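S1.2 Input.
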Amino acid sequence: WVITGTEYVTSNKTCSNINISAGAIMIINATSIGNESILIKADNITVEGDILLNGTGYQVLEGISQVDRSSDDEKHGPGGSHGGGGGANNNDPPSDGGVAYGDPVNPFQAGSGGGHAGTTDDGIGGAGGGILKLEADVLIVNGTISADGISGIQSFGSGIGGGGGGGTIHIIANHINGTGNITARGGGGGG
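S1.3 Output.
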């Protein structure tokens, strides 16, 4: 299976070889609910382009460790969580971000969404990163595999939404090589 453009993957894929060419993008989107994983399995997987599942986890104000919106339109929204806790906002007293959850040895959960800023959604929280399981004999990554949370934004006031928690990239491989990046970071926020 050779990907040279943009390919949307919404279900499990198994084949002998997968090659994501430089400049090509595989977008993983199992569900808008954020609690399903996608399995990509092949003898050899080469990533010269990108595999992206940023913001395809739990949506804003949803997730295993749900956060609420800030109570004041001038304050920022709390951050979503997953493997680490989400950032607190700048309320007085601050609203804590989401509590860390998940298994660091056998990860299988999506990142939780961040909270809005204010009762009128003054700032919009970001969605959490999605879930991908890669199985291969040989995995070569010279591009990017990313399950990052989306950063919160400022929509029309001074408050900024909380960022979404990072997702999961679970890799089972006999050999991993390459100079690329594999990330599952939380999105930025205003807290």
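S1.4 Remarks. The first strand starts at residue 2 and ends at 3.
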